[in-house]
Design a protein that fits this description.
The chain has 11 helices and no strands. The protein is mainly alpha-helical.
Length: 192
Amino acid sequence: MARLVRLVRGCRAAAGLITVAMMLSGCGGHPPQPAARTTSAASYRVLVDAGLHLYRTHDLNAAEQLLIQAIRRDRRLPLAYYDLGVVYESEGLIQAALAEFMHATSVAPAYLPALYDQAVVEGVLHHTRYAIALYRQVIATRPDSPTAYLNLGLLEFASRDTAQAVHDLRHAVHLDPALASRVPTPLRARVR
């Protein structure tokens, strides 16, 4: 408990976080860690879970601080980088979000949430070719991802690769028919 108090003390939202961190240890939106983890990894997990909880309650500054502390605790794990990127993205800090997604994929190249969100941000920044390459990486690992196919097809259509766009959009709609409404009007007849 004393160790947890020291970890949280530097945070802007220290009041109440000790209780949140204690409640969240072992809970949260991420898969549970193996029981054989070290104290350092457990502390990392507590910080990440508490940061995620604060993000969900829209306390973005406090979430950011806890996630930065988690990264300092263990720079080899992708989760805190990814969650920090999500926090930055929700604040409209697109370049900062991209940097965190890139950090996550640099320590864990196959970490799909970061790879996918990196592709989304690259697309928003009009780095179309790079975004397309990232979506293809996602699909190579997860061929059942309809939104990856949809976003890939939309980028291909925007870059005038209509034949490939139709192919990938068909696949997206095949995997999730509800996505048909998001297919650009000029391609709808060809995608169905």
